[in-house]
Amino acid sequence: MPAHSLLSFIFFAVFLYFPALSVASIWPLPSSMSLSGPPLLISPVFTFKTSSNSGVLKRGITRYLEIILRQTNTKDHFESRANDKALSELFLSVSTDDETLQPVTCYSYTLTVSNGQASIKAKTPYGALYGMETFSQLIVDGCLVNNTVNINDKPKYNHRGLMLDTGRRYFPLELLYNIIDGMSYVKLNVFHLHILDWCRFSVESKLYPELQSNTSEFYTQEQIKSLVSYAADRGIRVIPEVESASHVLGLKGLDNKTKGLRFCNISGFLQLYNDPEGMTVPTMKNILKEMMSLFPDQYFHLGLDEVKTSSLCTTENTKSLEQELMEFLVQNGRIPVAWQEALTSTSAAINGTVLQAWTGTVLKYLIDKGFKVVNSMGNHFYLTGSLDISALWTDIASGLSPQESSQLLGGEMAVWTDNYCFVSQCFLYNREKPIAWWMYGPEQDSQFTESVSGIIWPKAIVGAGSFWNYRPDIKPNSPEFLTILNAQHKRMIQRGVLSCPLGCKCDELTRCGEKYPQP
Predict the structure, then answer these.
(1) Which residues are catalytic, by number?
(2) Is 133 helix (H, G, I), strand (E, B) or coil?
(3) How far does the chain reach from its first CA to its final CA, in angstroms?
(4) pLDDT tens sequence across 212-251
(5) Which end of the chain is less enclosed by CB atoms within 10 A, N or C?
(6) Which of 263, 387, 350, 372 is nearest to 313 (CA)?
(7) Nearest to 288 by CA among 243, 339, 246, 227
(8) Which residues contact residue 512 at a Cβ distance below 8 angstroms, ignoring those fewer than 6 apart?
(9) Tell me: the pLDDT tens digits for 407-443?
(10) How far is it, in rounded angstroms, from Cα 78 to Cα 142?
(11) d(CA 364, CA 322)
């Protein structure tokens, strides 16, 4: 919709708690919103003011000023409307300068514009960041879409995540930063890094340098520290996942008498077990302890999916391995997280473990067993090329009672790189080759970046909306929904987020109907 049509449409419109989708194109949809009155010009010298001493907030102000002042267009545009009143400042206030990021961090905010004055109030600096994001989305063609705004907003769920599988295909570091930027624009707050799988242990270990002996593609400890800090500045927690039973081929470098890991081979998988010599558990504890020093979040993910029990890996010694590592995390002040199999396959999950559900109807079962759960159902949130974007607009608490829903922490999308995993690096000679293995070797980083970014965005925009404020009355194929989705998608591209182009479909092998060239 052209900007002049948009502005004329909303000139006298009032939207109260979204009886219909607002053409203001705010995403995710706020909890409560009222807009009225004509557009309000944004001054070319607009600024934010605050009495807060929060570094997170001050750095956020710098970022959003740059975004907003780009949106106010040129000096000529402003001078052509010199007689119009202009908004020159917005005051930000927070209840606390505490910048600690936790699973229960408050992200709520209120945004008010009235009588030529604007303010954002929040309990934490992170809520204020979200308020600035919403404010920036209200600016079209150098104007606030309405001169009277009242928004009271908070997420329905505390956990709103995106997982990347760096344990198979390495993600270039600059791509991780770009994805974090995109997450911040749609109010996602959990960045889950699956750092160990078939192909690699993707984070440098100084304790066990053998873990990187077969690859040059890994993240140094300093790079991880910088990445965690960058994400935290945007209200995003980084959670590591160190597979600790199955999917541990990336630990093969420690399969020797002196280093202590003991593996059993089940159907082509290398799997850990609690060996009688007592070597595996201490070694894994050392690895977890080193990773805890790099990832300060309360949550630490142990994986534990697709565990098989046979041969040396009995149900008993697999369960005891998993439980010892969970208890070790608790002793070190962490909350263990695991995939659903930690309960459904081995019954190893200890009290307080957060379980991540990905198949079937297991969500209700996990909750009924007393566990807090994250919804990552593959048919809705596995961002493969075949997943239709409409599948991500869904009620993640569907089928749960209000009491059961209180145990649902939120949702998380997943980007698995099975289809990108380079065969010679992953030792997959006895496994079916990924569909795109021949295209995405180490020398194809730029092509991989383009391909995987097109799978993430714009699909993850929709998933983020479901985690924040799903609305059953809004249909994902309706013109109104598509208008607001396209506006957000375009906004993110303009801000530099790598994405599938507007109006296109992208998957592992194609972009806008064109196949990626073979190397």
Answers:
(1) 306
(2) helix
(3) 40
(4) 977 788 999 999 999 999 999 999 999 999 999 999 988 9
(5) C
(6) 263
(7) 243
(8) 500, 501, 504, 505, 506
(9) 999 999 999 998 887 655 555 444 456 666 667 778 8
(10) 8
(11) 23
